[in-house]
DNA sequence: CGATTCATTGATCGAGATCAAAATTGGTGG
DNA sequence: CCACCAATTTTGATCTCGATCAATGAATCG
């Protein structure tokens, strides 16, 4: 639960974070741990619950009928996801774990009830949705305009920042439980090209890699080179005027 | 205001739609008409109001420092946008009109007040946010996986459906107030390639074009060919259990 | 009508895709 | 500790879709 607490502590104060965590755990929740490859949400169904990622990674992806796969985003520890479920709509994408993962399943009806009773909670969840939207827009820019090298650098920098937020302190090493194919499906490239571009980036001293962990050698340079704007994820506190 | 009423009538019943429209107009709103190229939201500022597009087109876009532009999405008549403003955050993208456009500006504080007083309104606005997110995800798939021809077809089909929703009835002709460059910046391609691909699509009898209006000749074929899933925008009614 | 913006067409180039083979890695069990 | 296996990664050769550069041809609008 620490990852989630760290996450929301970015935008609400500590007592509020505590209250949110408390409200959430007192609801009709179930903590589950699944192995890698477990499908949490299947496209076309109505999952009627939302998830809090506590540990491990998951992906939201879309499969095309000819087998192409686009990963839409990663779910990292601390992420709250499928707030869309509040509309009781069919999922248009699937979500599956990438690693062994521990997460909280929260029933939608109970969650809605809690929202209605504690209106100030709503602002925090609204914020989560806004932040996710922001990441989606950034991903569109990434895939629409950036070169292979820019895309990879840009993604690594985003992951670094998000993992720092979950951990509650800056990290510089990004442990990536991803195959080249996963990266490729995220970035709209092929695994072969991911491999080649990563090699070139290592050769140029931008990153290092060992045991599936990426170390960002020179963050400022990588950011400049990747068109990464370090401020785009809003980590300011919410000011819901009351 | 009809376009907006038609839009939300997709997911709430008529009296509710009427109430939402009434609440909105009674707020601290201003109806404005701007020429093409007017900047409604500037990246980096805090706009502290939201907009209802009544007529005309606008784009949300991001400029990179070397001049590249990625259009993130189009705002069509009936669209409510910048709900993110409720968090009082800096905009990470700009919004500008593409044509002459009429829109409603709603002050954020008044809107928040209304939300708090009429809780059932919230569900409708939540729905709008969910729908926008859904379109963003679909755009990621489009730009990440589809070929030039697929991207164009896919976008046209989405625009057709959205324009139909605003009009309150199916249309088959999509009036596009877009230059090749706009399309290119939306789809991550170059204007030259847009032009060539459009020509090929006309040659193949997929679309026709005259006076900036696209007619979709064979919708089923275009949908199949573009990997367009006609059901992805959730037009079901909200079932917020109360 | 000019003038300016936008679209088309042609020629060439290049980033990334594809296909295929070889090299690494990471278990698993003896 | 080593041998074996499957999955993943790397490397090489070649191809292609879309980019780039540049010129020509419509539109649109004072």
Rough outline of chain A: globular
Q: Assembly state here?
A: homodimer
Strand order of the largest sheet of chain A: 1-8-3-6
Mean pLDDT of chain A: 88
Helix content of chain A: 40-55%
List keywords for this structure.
homodimer, 242 residues, alpha+beta, four-stranded antiparallel β-sheet, 22% strand, disordered C terminus, DNA-binding
Describe the structure.
The structure is a homodimer of 242-residue chains. The first copy, chain A, has a 4-stranded antiparallel β-sheet with strand order 1-8-3-6. In chain A, strands 2-7-4-5 form a 4-stranded antiparallel β-sheet. In chain A, strand 10 and strand 11 form a beta hairpin. Chain A is built from 8 helices and 11 strands. Chain A has 242 residues and is an alpha+beta fold. Chain A has helices spanning 2-8, 14-26, 108-117, 119-145, 148-167, 180-187, 191-203, 219-226, and strands spanning 29-34, 39-41, 49-55, 58-63, 69-75, 80-81, 94-97, 101-107, 173-175, 207-210, 213-216. The interface between A and B is large, with 51 and 51 residues. Chain B binds a DNA duplex (30 and 30 nucleotides) through residues 147-148, 179-181, 189-197, 199.
